Each structure stands twice: as C-alpha cells, then as structure tokens.
Amino acid sequence: MAVAPTAAADVVTTPYFWEEACKHLMKKDRVMKRLIPQFGDACLQTRGDAFVTLARSIIGQQISVKAAQTVWDRFAVLPKKLTPANVLKLKVDDMRAAGLSARKVEYLVDLALHFDNGALHVKDWDSMEDEEIIAELVSIRGIGRWTAEMFLIFHLMRPNVLPLDDDGLITGISQNYFSGDVVSRSDAREVAAAWAPYCSVATWYIWRSLDPLPVAY
To answer: In the chain, N or C terminus with fewer CB closer than 10 Å?
Structure first.
C-alpha cells in the first residue's frame, strides 16, 4: 500500500469497536485466535481529514512509501493551508516542480473540485452505506475501488470492508489459511465469511501478519 503515513503530530483516533471485534474474531476463526494476541494493544488508527487522506492516496499511487512522502512534503507546503479551494489556486508548474506527474496534477485538481463544488456528500457519509460512499469516490479521477475501500477502512473506520483487490490481503490469506497455495477471490470471500461483521479488523491483522508495523493514513 504505497500511501505515506501522516506526521506523528497529527491527532490519532482509534475505532470504538476494536475490542469487541477482536473477541468475535478470536471466537469464530482459528487463525485470528493465533494472530490477534501477537500484536498486543496495536490497532487501526486514522489521522487528518478526508481531503488530505485522499490527496495522499493519489500522490502515493504506483510509487514507494518513501518517494510518496518526499513528493507529499513538497506539495503540502505549496498552499498556506491544504484545502480544496487553495489547491485549485495552485499553478500547474509549481505542482509539477514538487514532483507530481501531469496525470496526478489532473487527479488532484479533480479531487479538489469534487470537494469544493459539493459533489461529495461529506457531511452525510456517517449515515451512508459503504457502497454509496464508494460510488461517490470512484467518480473522482484517479480513485478506484481499492482506494475507496482503503479510505473506508483507514479514514471512516468502517468495520466490515473486505478489499478483495488488495494484494496483501490475498497473499496473507494464502499464507495463513492455504499454506501458501494460490488463492482465488472466491476462496478469500469464503474465508472472510467467518469475519463478518468485522472484515476490516481481520484484514488489518492479515496485513500485520505480513508487515508487523502498522500504517496510519
């Protein structure tokens, strides 16, 4: 997941449902019963606001976490405050000089437009279903279903997201449930049936089994 984590100084929020989810998963799933105790009190964390989180996800696409952080640091200081309206005022040349490709500049401008013109129902997201939010987000250039699902997990902290397009999830299911054998989406979905209604939490622990260091977006 090549999205740079935010600065440690940001306010960090953790999910209210985490303890309950862990108890449920350990009761229902033999792998979770083994995995969850290995990571102590560590849990999913979210930082920043929606626009910043999505801007980071766009900048981080197809580049390493380190490269993404470098570009982000250069881009984030261009406006006095990182808001959609201020991003729309930036010069393309300045954004390119920060290390952004022409395509990513277009994506960031489209993202800022969607926030600035009210095309996204940000204030309603808390009461909207996951698929409704995904439908809104994928209307933005440069944001596909995987990015939208990462946003649901890491920003909105939705408890039951199963990102079947995530390579880490599929690899982790293969290693933890199938002794490394190739796993299909249907195999993964079958395994995850025992995780509901906490697929996001189980996915987080599957990621930790591959990389013990938690990532916050």
So the answer is: N
